[in-house]
Automatic annotation (TrEMBL), chain A:
Protein's UniProt name: Response regulator transcription factor
Organism in which the protein naturally occurs: Flavobacterium microcysteis
Keyword rRNA-binding attributed: no
Any Pfam family matching the protein: Response_reg
GO molecular function, one term: phosphorelay response regulator activity
Domain of life of the native organism: Bacteria
Sequence positions bearing 4-aspartylphosphate: 55
Keyword line: Phosphoprotein
Response regulatory domain span: 5-122
Domain HTH LytTR-type: 146-246
Length: 248, 549
């Protein structure tokens, strides 16, 4: 589980400093603070960025929107973002609104508001609404990672790092090579994970990352995974081995 | 017979066609008689009247010398007709005129055989005469002679001079043709002498001619000459008469032409009048339309004037309210900045004296002043944006619990200062469909008010509830509450409350106005429940978010 990294595009140092302070306090990593459009682009491509916070006006011109538009054009690099604005200028907002999914925050804002805005941006971007606010869900699934809400903050787990998942009713135990933690995720998303071919079901309760399989002990009905994790293999789900063969 | 027809006509006055037919018949206007009798016949069922009509028609045809038609009509008359004998008589006359003497004799004999005593409207002498003529045609001189003389007798008895002359002449001719000149001549003479007594020029002429011929044949030329001359003179007079007739005809034609001309002129005048009348009509219509449109536009103008006036009044009111607001706001700002100024100088003083205990309190009060001034300015800004329709508005699904949480976060220090406990009991599953920024403004104002009007150690609770279409947030405080008048004033859109009963605390009402407008923009409602010294409950009703969105 790693920190979610945030790129801040803000030209007023006082405000960016406040933002950095709030975000670091809440266990976010800062990928960088950009004050201009070009700087922002450079930082965006250089570092891993999960979320972008964009001030609409950079040095008096709505360059923030331009940036959002730029990253929105290419779907692969596109990221969730939050607009910050101090004016309720309508025309600018009409333009900003076109950069969907659109979330914005009016200045001045307090700590809770920015955290809420970030969560909303992630939900909207990955089209999985009402996850972080509900009592029985806390995980949003993106193409390569899981965003998990822990207290006021978001955490990120790369899907490739997951060794196996143990499903227990509403909860899932996520086991990576070094960590083990509980998330709440809907079953539909679990099956989405399975569809991507990276994961296989070895048992009613176990979903295993196919790349992490070290050995399959058929007579013991065991699958041995990296980090010496052992998972039960049930009769019903043995079929996946054939699939593996084909893959090999 | 005429009197009889008149009687019948009077009895049947309601049958217009018959009445007209008989009237024309009696006036001897044959054509019209034909027309109206035909009309009557076309639909008449009454046998007697129909007989009369046929009779009219037959008689008319006979007089117009249309013998065939006349005979046809006569034959259609039923035998029960009162004047049936007349029908036979006329049929006889028609036969005679067509030189069918045998048939004529047949008819005439029928008439002759009628009993003498009956009241018959015909001249027996004429019948005898006609019979005579028939026999004359058949060259049965004896019978002819007998009838002629019989007829002459009757005529003499009836003093029918004209017929008598004809009769005499016929008798004379009869004898003359048989070369019985001795008998013939006295008849001629008788006729001639009788003709002198009458005015019928034609008869006179014929009598004179006959005398002339007789004289000639007897080689009495001088006498013949005188007769001839007489004959000529009568003929001339007849011609004169004809000329007079022709002139009369011409005159008639002329007068007719004159009349036609007059009629033409009258018609032209009529046309002119009609044209004039139409012109007048159209021009008056046009005027009326013009008048109507004029009135319409006038009324329209009055209406728009009224609207403009009311709008002007409203504008004036609003302007006055704005001015008032402006002065209140600037006054508030001035006093709070002034308070900050004095507080700051005090701060500097205590810093100099190193009075750190006081420093902390002063700082806190400073920040409180700044906070309230900021809120005022923020409301003012949003109000201005709302009024100028520049406010960005974007409705989406909003998680009410976290919004309340976020808003509460700002007020934590203020509440701690007053030792107010705060509870957010909004259900976490509650989502409203609203514009987030405006909802935040509303909540901020409500919480701010709740804190402002709460006593120390008070309690503020925010509840949430939902019905089918709406969800409601209720901000409840245990503060000083408001009277009903103030509540109604607060909810009145046009009135900005400027009551300064509690100068420190009651505001301009701007915040409340803003909340009302924002709630309305969110298609929601704002409800106030308050009791003095017990507390206030303010509820915001919002649309519920559709979970599928």
């Amino acid at each position: 589980m790693s920190k979610v990294s945030v790129l801040i595009i803000e030209d007023t140092p006082a405000e960016s400093e406040a933002l950095v302070k709030v975000l670091t306090q809440n266990n976010y990593a800062i990928a960088g603070v950009a004050t201009t459009f070009s700087e922002a682009l450079a930082l965006f491509y250089k570092n891993t960025v999960d979320i972008v916070i964009i001030d609409v006006f950079l040095n008096g011109i709505p360059e923030g929107i331009t940036f959002a538009e730029t990253i929105n054009i290419t779907p692969d690099i596109s990221r969730p973002f939050v607009f910050l604005t101090s004016s309720n200028d309508r025309q600018i907002f009409e333009r900003a609104k076109l950069t969907k999914p659109f979330s914005f925050l009016l200045k001045p804002f307090n700590e809770l508001e920015i955290l809420y805005a970030i969560e909303m941006a992630v939900e909207k971007f990955y089209e999985q609404s009402n996850v972080f606010l509900s009592d029985d869900l806390d995980t949003v699934l993106s193409t390569d990672s899981l965003f998990i809400k822990k207290k006021n903050s978001l955490k990120k787990v790369l899907i490739d790092d997951i060794v196996y998942i143990e499903v227990e009713e509403r909860y899932c135990n996520i086991i990576t090579e070094h960590e083990k933690f509980v998330i709440m995720i809907s079953l539909t998303k679990i099956s989405e994970l399975l569809e991507k071919n990276k994961f296989v079901k070895t048992h009613r309760n176990y979903i295993v990352n196919a790349n992490k399989i070290e050995e399959i002990v058929l007579h013991d009905n065991l699958v041995i995974l990296k980090g010496n994790h052992k998972v039960t293999l049930s009769e019903k789900h043995k079929d996946f081995i054939k699939k593996l063969n084909i893959l090999k | 017979m005429d009197s009889e027809i008149r009687k019948i006509a009077l009895e049947n006055k309601d049958k217009a066609d018959f009445y007209k037919a008989q009237a024309f018949f009696l006036e001897k206007n044959w054509d019209s008689t034909l027309v109206y009798s035909m009309k009557y016949l076309a639909h008449a069922g009454h046998q007697e009247l129909a007989d009369y009509c046929h009779y009219f028609r037959a008689f008319s045809f006979k007089n117009k010398k249309l013998l065939q038609q006349a005979r046809k009509e006569f034959l259609q008359i039923s035998k029960n007709f009162r004047f049936y004998y007349k029908v036979r008589l006329y049929l006889g006359e028609i036969a005679l005129e067509e030189s069918n003497s045998e048939l004529a004799i047949h008819y005439f004999k029928e008439i002759e055989n009628l009993p003498e005593t009956g009241n018959y409207d015909f001249k027996r002498g004429v019948v005898y005469h006609n019979l005579g003529v028939c026999y004359l045609h058949q060259k049965k001189y004896d019978q002819a002679d007998a009838y002629f003389s019989k007829g002459a007798e009757v005529m003499q008895a009836e003093k029918d001079t004209i017929s008598l002359i004809g009769s005499y002449m016929n008798i004379a001719n009869l004898y003359y043709e048989q070369y019985k000149d001795n008998i013939a001549i006295p008849y001629f003479e008788k006729a001639y002498s009788l003709s002198k007594k009458i005015k019928n020029v034609e008869l006179k002429q014929n009598a004179a001619l006959n005398m002339a011929v007789v004289a000639e044949n007897n080689k009495k030329f001088p006498l013949a000459l005188t007769y001839r001359k007489e004959y000529e003179s009568w003929r001339d007079s007849l011609n004169d008469q004809n000329k007079v007739w022709a002139i009369a005809e011409l005159e008639k034609k002329f007068t007719v032409k004159q009349k036609e001309k007059e009629i033409g002129i009258l018609e032209a005048e009529n046309k002119l009048k009609i044209a004039e009348r139409n012109g007048f009509f159209y021009s008056s219509l046009l005027l009326l339309v013009l008048f109507g449109t004029g009135i319409y536009f006038y009324r329209q103008k009055i209406k728009s004037n009224r609207i403009i006036l009311s709008q002007k009044n409203k504008l004036d009111e609003l302007n006055a309210a704005k001015d008032q607001l402006f002065s209140i706001v600037s006054h508030d700002l001035r006093s709070s900045v002034n308070a900050l100024k004095t507080s700051n100088s005090k701060l500097a003083e205590s810093l100099e004296c190193k009075n750190f205990e006081a420093l902390d309190k002063q700082l806190q009060s400073n920040s409180a002043i700044a906070h309230s001034s900021y809120n005022l300015l923020d409301n003012l800004l949003h109000w201005a944006l709302l009024q100028t329709k520049q406010l960005y508005f974007h409705k989406e699904s909003v998680h009410l619990f976290s919004v309340v949480q976020q808003m509460e976060f700002n007020y934590k220090p203020l509440m701690q200062e007053k030792n107010i406990s705060f509870e957010n009991s909004v259900p976490k599953a509650l989502f409203a469909y609203a514009d987030l920024s405006s909802l935040k403004i509303i909540l901020r104002n409500l919480i701010d008010n709740a804190i402002k009007f709460s006593r120390e150690n008070g309690k503020i609770t925010i509840h949430g509830s939902s019905s089918e279409d709406f969800c409601t947030l209720t901000v409840e405080d245990s503060g000083q509450g408001m009277s009903k008048e103030i509540v109604s004033q607060l909810l009145d859109e046009s009135a900005l409350v400027s009551k300064k009963e509690n100068p420190e605390k009651s505001g301009t009402g701007l915040g409340m106005q803003l909340c009302l407008s924002m709630a309305q923009k969110n298609e929601g409602k704002l409800l106030i429940e308050s009791e003095e010294n017990k507390g206030t409950k303010i509820s915001i009703q919002l649309l519920k978010a559709n979970k599928n969105e």
